[in-house]
Amino acid sequence: MKLQIAALWLICAGPVWADAPIFVLDQTQLPFDLGPGAPANSPARQGNSPSAAANSSASGANSSSAYANSPRNPENAKRVLFTREGDVVGYYAENGSGTLNLFTLGGKRALYRPKGTKSLFSSTGDWCGTVAAAEAGGFAFGVTRKCASLLLN
């Protein structure tokens, strides 16, 4: 698994805002610092809560009705999420407060990564996976099978 993450970091080398691979991970194979047991990644941490102002789905900054997050924004075509098979399943956008949002192709917010963590969460606060950042910029998203389905609905 560590080799897969390292390989994905190499794939993601490029501009900070670029297409990003998304893959299903096995949470039991993650190193401690990438999983929900690490204090910064814990669903119980207030800063990771879906009710925290920067993460809230009620915030316009996290809504696809905001042009920056909209599927109609051409900039989001440069930030697509793609599977190993090459299927595009969504896109990502930052909200200006450090929260990174992952949206379905239709613009529904599926997951978010709060500022200061390497983890992804669902709108109900469930731990959903991890974000790997490449040295030269870009991302790779590893998500649990359950949360991967949120991007496909």
UniProtKB/TrEMBL annotation:
<feature type="compositionally biased region" description="Low complexity">
    <location>
        <begin position="48"/>
        <end position="70"/>
    </location>
</feature>
<keyword id="KW-0732">Signal</keyword>
<feature type="region of interest" description="Disordered">
    <location>
        <begin position="36"/>
        <end position="73"/>
    </location>
</feature>
<feature type="signal peptide">
    <location>
        <begin position="1"/>
        <end position="18"/>
    </location>
</feature>
<protein>
    <recommendedName>
        <fullName>Secreted protein</fullName>
    </recommendedName>
</protein>
